[in-house]
DNA sequence: CGAGGCGATGTGAACGCTAACATATGACGC
DNA sequence: GCGTCATATGTTAGCGTTCACATCGCCTCG
């Protein structure tokens, strides 16, 4: 920015003076009121253009007592799911006429989440979207729900809370059932960390599918969503020859499992089948291409914004049905050989 | 939010009444002025606590004529690099006392970038950080630079523009030189798409290292950063037996190349060596573990915020030295066999 | 031809805060 | 004991909007 070049930004009054009307008429034009004569409107529009006028959102927010902002809290912003979610919420918000305040929390814990929510509240957001379904947030929600509208993005929401979600449990059932259909009986699970709702739901889906098929749960190892933890889990699983299939709670861990299996000399999928969760863009181009469960983060974000705007409009507490994930069959899982 | 429960949010005047002081004294307390007696301060603080008072940022911004906001434009928000950058900018901004407005642009083109910048300007950001180094933005920059402070995140910035960056060219030289040292003479390059500065710089680094070693450039294929495009490039490369090494412009494409090589029966690294760029968290757990070039996105974000805040404070145009990337040796590249 | 009404525009106040200045209170020196 | 000064606090105005209402023409109709 060149110093001294620009004085104060022009205000409505400046535009009004230039167009020879009152500031209120400018306001009407800017807000699309139809009570302005065509030629007057044109004069105003021309003045706006000439001066490079921009409506001051702070002044507007002050007098209307509405910020026009929605906040999204999300963690692990470097990962595919959260990143996609953030982008889709942002886009849907724009379309709905809201500004989206993105609040990434690199490492989730109760303190940092609380701090992030405080910041969002300081920003006067009209609703908070909770893009991270972790147990530690459920208590927090109760506290802020009297202050601001809240939408949880959650596959197993507490009673009476506004929420949207993807059916994690159903996705896990899809994956496990597929493995069962392939003839596998001992299916290990590399779970996400304790405390994460999605991890719990995926684990329950695995368990439920097994139960329905009268199969015993295979070994279960808890990871932390990272490929490193998947690798460590895989190394352990590789030592157990009875395991012929692994369901990993996300694609990163699945990929770690596959590497560990490779290193142990067990072929995927000939010796051990592996299924992941998420369908990250790279999943299709791993070796072998990863069979996984796809979640539609884009729709999730749109839905969340929709529910939030409705909540702001009429306070309704609406819980649309969970979105259904989809099994994407590639070649990391195959019929049980022996 | 429970309807009817909360009336209007308390203002300074409410706090002042409760504490038995004037609103100005409340303002002083809130802003940490030391011209307030200890016991008065305590009374005010107590009133703030009791009423749950929050300072209204809009009113403050209106009167101070400063929004306290920095905007970050970034694309491909689902990818590791941009996601990490966004998070680190956000964090650094908080620390520096600025609110960060994150503006993800899913698919970059001149129109959407322009729209996003307009939105940022409407939000009255005091500086715009351009987190996407694409040619199409360079013209845009010239237009807005008179309106707002701009910081480009760019490894080869135009003259006189404030910027920070990571030395992409040096990273590519590192990768290529490593391959050369391993005895490879025909090194292919899977480049990023035309128009992306980083892609250009990496390609130039590859070319420069080759030139210095008196080696002829191997085949060159342009991808689009995706693993799919890497796969397609890899399939092509696999047909050329003279190629014994590939330098891919990012990890996703590298992973696609590896799969294509596998499918063609060419082993990595025994037959063909592959080096990527970025060091995404999964890179270390691919099979084989990917040798790649690590960029420090976290430091990049911090640096960008630092330069932006300085620019706002005194208008200085500072271009700190490029950050240096680092070669991470794993096992997807090996000494040339024959 | 004047009352009534409607469409287009203007006026004044208020939103919650900070900046600038004004005032009160007490300590101190002569 | 009174001016002087520093320290603590209060008062007023104004930031750029929108809202509620006032005004001004002009047309319609009995």
Key features of this structure:
five-stranded parallel beta sheet; transcription (chains A, B); four-stranded parallel beta sheet; alpha/beta; 3 domains; LacI family DNA-binding transcriptional regulator (chains A, B); LacI/GalR-like_sensor (chains A, B); 338 residues; DNA-binding; elongated; homodimer; 12 helices; 434 Repressor (Amino-terminal Domain); 14% strand; Rossmann fold
How would you portray this structure in words?
Chains A, B: It comes from Nocardioides turkmenicus. Chains A, B: Keywords: DNA-binding, Transcription, Transcription regulation. Chains A, B: This is LacI family DNA-binding transcriptional regulator. The structure is a homodimer of 338-residue chains. The first copy, chain A, is α/β, with parallel strands linked by helices. Chain A has 3 domains: 12-55, lambda repressor-like DNA-binding domains (434 Repressor (Amino-terminal Domain)); 65-165 and 297-322, Response regulator (Rossmann fold, 3-Layer(aba) Sandwich), CATH 3.40.50; 168-294, Response regulator (Rossmann fold), CATH 3.40.50.2300. In chain A, 44% of the residues lie in helices and 14% in strands. Chain A contains 12 helices and 11 strands. In chain A, the strands form 3 sheets. Chain A has a 5-stranded parallel β-sheet, with helices on both faces. Chain A has a 4-stranded parallel β-sheet with strand order 7-6-8-9, with helices on both faces. In chain A, helix 1 packs across helix 3 (38-51), helix 5 (80-95) crosses helix 12 and helix 10 (227-238) packs across helix 11 (251-263). The radius of gyration of chain A is 26 Å and the shape is elongated. The model of chain A has no long low-confidence stretch (mean pLDDT 95). Chains A and B meet through helix 4, helix 5, strand 2, helix 6 and helix 10 of A and helix 4, helix 5, strand 2, helix 6 and helix 10 of B. Chain A binds a DNA duplex (30 and 30 nucleotides) through residues 11-13, 21-25, 27-28, 31, 35-37, 40, 55-65.
């Amino acid at each position: 920015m060149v110093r001294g070049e620009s004085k104060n930004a022009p205000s409505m009054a400046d535009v009004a003076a230039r167009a020879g009307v009152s500031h209120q008429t400018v306001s009407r034009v800017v807000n699309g009121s139809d009570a302005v004569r065509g030629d007057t409107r044109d004069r105003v529009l021309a003045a706006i253009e000439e001066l490079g006028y921009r409506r001051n959102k702070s002044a507007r927010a002050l007098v209307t007592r509405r910020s026009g902002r929605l906040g999204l809290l999300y963690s692990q912003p470097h990962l595919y799911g959260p990143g996609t979610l953030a982008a889709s919420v942002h886009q849907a918000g724009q379309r709905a006429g809201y500004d989206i305040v993105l609040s990434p929390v690199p490492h989730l814990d109760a303190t940092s989440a609380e701090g992030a929510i405080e910041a969002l509240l300081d920003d006067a957001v009209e609703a908070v979207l909770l893009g991270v379904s972790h147990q530690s947030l459920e208590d927090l929600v109760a506290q802020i729900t009297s202050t601001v509208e809240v939408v949880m993005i959650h596959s197993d929401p507490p009673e009476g809370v506004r929420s949207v979600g993807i059916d994690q449990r159903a996705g896990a059932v899809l994956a496990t059932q597929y493995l069962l259909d392939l003839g596998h009986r001992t299916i290990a699970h590399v779970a996400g960390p304790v405390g994460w709702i999605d991890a719990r739901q995926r684990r329950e889906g695995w368990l439920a599918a097994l139960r329905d098929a009268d199969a015993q749960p295979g070994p279960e190892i808890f990871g932390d969503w990272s490929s490193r933890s998947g690798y460590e889990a895989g190394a352990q699983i590789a030592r157990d020859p009875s395991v012929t299939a692994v369901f990993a709670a996300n694609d990163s861990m699945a990929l770690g499992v596959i590497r560990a299996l490779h290193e142990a000399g067990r072929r995927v999928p000939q010796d051990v089948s592996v299924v992941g969760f998420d369908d990250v863009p790279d999943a299709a181009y791993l070796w072998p291409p990863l069979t996984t469960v796809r979640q539609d983060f884009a729709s999730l974000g749109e839905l969340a914004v929709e529910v939030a705007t409705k909540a702001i409009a009429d306070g309704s507490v609406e819980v649309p049905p969970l979105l259904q994930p989809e099994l994407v069959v590639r070649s990391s899982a195959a019929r049980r050989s022996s």
